[in-house]
Amino acid sequence: MPTERDDSYTAPARSAVERHFQTFVGVVMVALLFWIFNSVQDLTVKVAVQNLNIQILSKTIEKLSVDTDDRYRSTEAKRDFYIRDAEINDIKKRITNLERRGYVR
Question: If pLDDT is split at 50, 70 and 90, which confidence band does 77 have?
Answer without folding.
Answer: very high
